[in-house]
Amino acid sequence: MESRIWLSSPHMGGNELKYVKEAFDTNWIAPLGPNVDHFEKELGEYLDVNHVAALSSGTAAIHLALILLGVKSGDEVIAQSFTFCGTTNPILYLGATPVLVDSEPDTWNLDPVLLEETILDRIKKGKRPKAVIMVHLYGMPAKMKEIVEVCSRYEIPLIEDAAEALGSTIDERKAGTFGDMGILSFNGNKIITTSGGGALVSNNTQWIDKSRFLATQARDEAPHYEHTELGYNYRMSNILAGVGRGQLEVLDSHVSKRRAVNAFYREHLSFEGLSFQSEMSAKDFSNYWLTSVKIEPELLGVDREDVRLELWKSNIETRPLWKPMHLQPLYKDCVYYGNGVSDELFTKGLCLPSGSNLTTVELERVVVAIKGFIAKS
Question: pTM higher than 0.85, yes or no?
Answer without folding.
Answer: yes
